Amino acid sequence: MQWLLIGLLLQATSPCLKCHKDFQKLPVKHEVLEDCTTCHEEQGDHTFPTLTPEAIRNLCLDCHDVATQHPPKEKAVCTTCHDPHASRLRLLLKGPEPDLCQKCHSPAPPPVFSHVPYEKGTCTACHTPHGSSHKPHLVAPEPETCATCHKAVAERLRQSYPHPPAEDACSTCHVAHGSDFPVLLNNQLSTQFYERYTPLRYFLCLDCHAAEDVFGPESGFVRGDRNLHSVHVRRPRGHNCLVCHDPHGTEQVHLLRSWIRYGPRWAIPLRIQAQAKRKACQPACHQAEEYGR
Predict the structure, then answer these.
(1) What is the pLDDT at residue 72?
(2) pLDDT lower than 70: segments of the chain
(3) CA dist., res. 55 & res. 49, Å (int)
């Protein structure tokens, strides 16, 4: 009934709508619809020339103060996404998310693991449709955008020792829309507590932390000539990087966790004690052990 009354009011206030009745059937109407001459020049023959993209943009910006870099606006076509008269959808959109976005942004093949907003098609949860100073049209800088939902990760980034790549950009390690690897990782990294070592299974970390530095003789994690990363990782039942290290941030040096999870209910403490140039790891899976040069 409400929209019927609005339609009758518009018909009474705008003589154009006596003929152009289709707009009245749609629930969301452009507020200037009651006066067509706000956008159109009144002509006796009622034939309105097709507006150029630049003319459309300038016309819309007379009322809508929207600064944007989204390519449809750069090509000066606000009407790519919005109907200038009326719509069934909010904001006079021509279609729902993600259908409207996918007219230009072709969807990728479905990933094995999808990001929930992407799976639900809520593109504007992370992106602003008119553009942004934060690539790729994010609503805020990348870490802030992600922290809107991932609050526990944001808290770890505020720890005493944050992981610099995670501070700079979550996309250093994660794929925003979806990935074929768990936790939306952009490459392979074992997430099993026990894992037989192969370089491929640790590719994500070894892409930055070269294997010769991690497992070589110059590593700080050594006892004499014995590399302790190799002791922990390079064996048939080795431990993946995430067992001891938190990839986002911790209160201990070297991104070492304060607690090591073992199964769903058991956690054992991990403490690092500095002694001159040497360090001691205690107590955790074993008795206190010193390491370093």
Answers:
(1) 66
(2) 1-15, 42-50, 67-69, 72-76, 276-278, 282-284, 293
(3) 11
The b-or-e profile of 241-257 (16+ CB within 10 A means b, else e) is bbbbbbbbbbebeebbb
Say if CB 261 and CB 268 are below 8 A apart.
no
Cβ-based burial of 223 (10 A; exposed 0-12, middle 13-18, buried ≥19): middle
pLDDT at 36: 80
The 10s digit of each residue's pLDDT in 240-261 is 999 999 999 999 989 999 998 8
Domains of the chain: which residue ranges? 23-34+58-93, 113-178, 187-291
β-strand partners of 161:
250
* pLDDT at residue number 46: 65
Q: Which residues contact 102 (CB under 8 A, 6 or more apart)?
A: none
Q: How far apart are CA 282 and CA 268, in angstroms?
A: 10
What is the total residue count of the chain?
293
Give the type of residue at 47: T
Residues 6+ apart with CB under 8 A from 9: 34
Segment holding 226, helix H or strand E: strand 226-227
DSSP string for residues in 101-125: GGGTSPPPPPPSEE-HHHHHT-GGG
User: CA gyration radius for the chain?
Assistant: 29
**Which pLDDT value is given to residue 75?**
62
Strands 28-29 and 86-87: antiparallel
Q: What distance in Å separates the CA atoms of residue 177 and residue 110, rounded to the nearest whole number?
A: 10
* Nearest residue to 94 (alpha-carbon basis) of 84, 104, 106: 84
The partner residues of 238 in beta bridges, in order of sequence, read 195
Q: Is 92 left (phi over 0), alpha (psi -120 to 50) or beta?
A: left
Strand, helix or coil for residue 268: strand
Helical (H) or strand (E) element with 275: strand 271-275
